[in-house]
Design brief:
Arc Repressor Mutant, subunit A, 2 domains, 13 helices, 3-stranded antiparallel β-sheet, alpha+beta, 4-stranded mixed β-sheet, single chain
Length: 292
């Protein structure tokens, strides 16, 4: 939807604090996509990139007791098994030998795409997540994120490269880190919901709700209804249509949209696959589905 129409219809702003490598962020994608589909342009999502790991040699996640790749691998497996999103935790075997590994280059790459447009940024962020979490790709590697950028619809690759090489995308990423500092947000995902038109620097419990961590869909719906009781809920479109709108998706994401379990959604998708309407790529503990 065009920006002027978006601004006219927006009822709630949603600031999403994230990192392309974050497993819990990937696990929250089913809820984010469902909110996008059910409420359409009444919600405006703004992504803020926090940079989960600046230097893995100096990293420690006290909440999850993670300080190295050996500890991250079982954590990713746990997230996948608990939430139903496909994740290949073996990526961390590839990351383990890398000294001073950082997620920052992937954040900057995503930010460079968002500098072009929110639509292009969303597409590349989704592609980066799938590559890291399901395809065992080190998306911090320049050759990897450039290849993913080249295949992203609507992305101006020369501008993408220029914005990274000039430092423009890096500066925008550092601006995002300042926002994280302002909100004392260091864990991802985190979402800040606030009424459209509210001054983000002077929010109150009456016009904003801060939601930290991975939460079920019911939590986000309660927040949306509390802040905007008159928001309109649109019917969810069929699988072929939503795959055309949002790009490749997992059965967990599609199932959340259609209020089905992962297993129930898989049966629907198998029938569509048999009819030639959709196709899948098998991944660890799940599949990636695309419109045929």
């Amino acid at each position: 939807m065009k920006k002027d129409t978006q601004e006219k219809n927006t009822k709630l702003e949603v600031m999403v604090f994230t990192d392309p490598y974050c497993s819990w962020c990937w696990a929250t994608e089913p809820m984010i996509l469902t909110m996008m589909e059910k409420y359409r342009d009444q919600l405006h999502f703004r992504y803020v990139f926090g940079g989960l790991i600046k230097d893995f040699d100096d990293f420690y996640d006290a909440q999850n007791d993670i300080r190295d790749a050996a500890a991250t691998k079982p954590h990713w497996k746990m997230v996948s098994e608990r939430t139903g999103q496909p994740i290949d935790e073996n990526l961390w075997e590839d990351i383990a030998p890398i000294r001073h590994f950082s997620t920052w280059p992937a954040n900057i790459a995503a930010k460079a795409a968002f500098l072009q447009s929110e639509e292009v940024g969303f597409r590349l962020l989704r592609r980066l997540r799938r590559a890291a979490l399901t395809e065992r790709k080190i998306i911090s590697d320049k050759a990897v994120y450039e290849a993913l950028a080249r295949e992203t619809d609507g992305l101006d690759f020369e501008r993408f490269q220029a914005d990274i090489e000039s430092g423009k995308a890096g500066e925008a990423f550092l601006d995002d880190q300042e926002i994280c500092m302002q909100w004392q947000t260091f864990g991802f995902p985190t979402m800040l919901f606030y009424k459209a038109g509210a001054d983000v620097h002077h929010l109150t419990p009456e016009n904003a709700v801060y939601v930290g961590g991975h939460r079920p869909m019911e939590t986000y719906e309660r927040v949306i209804r509390a802040l905007c009781p008159d928001i309109e809920e649109f019917p969810v479109r069929g699988e072929e249509d939503v795959l055309g709108v949002y790009g490749p998706m997992t059965e967990r994401e599609l199932g959340q949209m259609h209020s089905r379990s992962k297993e129930e959604e898989l049966e629907v998708l198998r029938a569509l696959e048999k009819d030639g309407a959709v196709s899948r790529t098998e991944r660890t503990r799940g599949n990636i589905w695309t419109a045929a």
